[in-house]
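Predict structure. Chain length: 299.
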Amino acid sequence: MRTRGTIVRSSFALGAVMSIGGCFHDSPPQLGCASESVCTTTSASTTTTTMEPTTSTTTTTGESAEPRTFRIDSLRLVDPHLFSDICFDVTGLVNMFGLTQQIGDGELNLILHFADFDPGALAAVLEEALSCDLTAQTCVQDEGVSLQLPVERITEAPCLAVDPAVFATMNAASLNQPEPTCFRTSAVELALPLGAADAPINMLQTQVAFNFDDPDDPQAILHGVISGFMTRASAEAVDIEVSGADYNLWALVQGPEGCAESHPDLLPSVDELAGPDGPIEGVWLAFNATASRVALVPP
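Prediction complete.
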């Protein structure tokens, strides 16, 4: 049985994150914070990330740092599972014909960019590229809004900061949980495109935890997990297409009446998050993710 948890976080004090970049809205670019009035654009905050030339920055080890960029090449929703109006589990369809197809076709191009790659002092920029040439392994950077993420190096388990009790037990076991030494971004607000959704999903307390294939000279991100809290209000505003039919995202999360009796290990999925004005209803999301190195090219 899934544990419905009330996860208490240290308020919604995300102002420090919001002040360094990103906007949160329903039109591209779809990354960033919850209020456009406090947002800044990459024209002011990330002007050094348009290409991948070698820089003269010195790392914490005294060696020269260089930029590294990784495009997310796989993204799979692990928790919660989604159920149609006839109690059919459509999670696999959303993953295969939404996320996987969009990534494979080059329609969804989320990238993590490290302007000065120093394993001892990482800072990432998360953004959606304008386009990517998957054969040449290059991406054209969008000069719009991006989200800057401080990155913490984790030397002791667990790498995931979210309480695993908010996930169904069988789903938690399917997470590609990274092992130390691993890396974890700070918790931020994020608008994430989801497959064939007509609008991005708004997530609170979003973090990316991952391993590099080689911490000193990485060519790929392995065992990545993206987790965050999607509010009910956000999910109710999003419809996604599954096998030619449109479904409300929150209805898929809840499942039809009586469905929990048929899937007691997966339902109910509804969680609560402690907010400044009381509990916020929603659901914790977890995606398995991997990424491969690409080169940024100018528009």
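Summary: Residues 6-40+66-297 form one domain.
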